[in-house]
Design goal:
alpha/beta, 260 residues, 8 helices
């Protein structure tokens, strides 16, 4: 796990987070403390840590849903955010949910589309997530895994270079989650997105990411990171993934015990 992930260290980061600190009131506990992270173009980074360590808060700050108390975020690209729940609008079809994201997007490519163009692009995105026949189906007609695929298509419709994912597969059964791991890696490879993936599942982090980052508990800061050298595609039940996950899990348990 010590070899470098793909890409040259000389590549300029697409996102620079410097000394990011978050507290919700002057005398409230610090949620994030002097958090620093560089994300390179096309890089896949997973964040793991105990509940309450600030992972979701970090993603909310990066998308502008919350303001930091101090620190800076340097990027020329906005990020799209995918939550654990698919949050599809139930009165719209899968295609219409993706079309709405295109209509609301401020990306030049999306803004240039007319109604017919948005429909065609939505169909292309559904095909990218392997749902070519789902355009006219409403969320209740889709399985949990299919709904999450539509949510990925909707996130991609925003036309941004950075994708933030907050435990997007946590509510799914193990088989569906494993299938979506394969789909996500395929989509990441085809689109060249930079991804920050938050998860409580260490094996999932090792299965997906080029770099796994362990956050401390209360307040959240980076305390360890691992470069994952194994080539994709990976299997979550492989001995290599299990061994790497065991090392990270041991460190996570130590961190949890320190703050128990």
């Amino acid at each position: 796990m010590s070899e470098s992930y793909s890409g040259s260290t000389a590549v300029e980061p697409i996102l620079k987070i410097r000394n990011l600190t978050k507290r919700y009131a002057p005398n409230a506990p610090v949620i994030l403390d002097e958090f620093n992270l560089d994300l390179k173009p096309g890089e896949f980074v997973a964040l793991v840590g105990a509940s309450g360590c600030g992972k979701s808060t970090l993603l909310n700050i990066l998308t502008g849903l919350e303001e930091p108390t101090s620190g800076t975020i340097e990027t020329s690209h906005e990020a799209s955010l995918m939550f654990q729940e698919h949050a599809l609008l139930p009165w719209l079809t899968a295609g219409e949910n993706v079309e709405l994201a295109l209509k609301l997007s401020d990306a030049p490519e999306a803004k240039a589309l007319n109604a017919d163009g948005r429909e065609a692009r939505a169909q292309e995105l559904l095909e990218l997530v392997h749902l070519p026949t789902a355009f006219d189906l409403r969320p209740h007609e889709l399985s949990g895994g299919m709904r999450q695929r539509v949510a990925i298509a909707r996130a991609l419709a925003q036309g941004r270079k950075i994708l933030l994912m907050d435990e997007p597969f946590a509510a799914l059964d193990a088989i569906t989650r494993d299938l979506l791991h394969d789909e996500l890696i395929r989509i990441w490879d085809e689109t060249g997105l930079a991804v920050i993936f938050v998860t409580h599942n260490v094996r999932e982090a090792v299965r997906l990411a080029q770099r796994v980052i362990l956050m401390s508990s209360k307040p959240g800061r980076i305390i360890r990171e691992w470069n994952i050298k194994y080539a994709q595609p990976r299997r979550i039940d492989s001995s290599d993934i299990a061994q790497a996950a065991a090392v990270i899990t041991d460190e996570l348990r130590k961190e949890i015990r320190r703050h128990a």
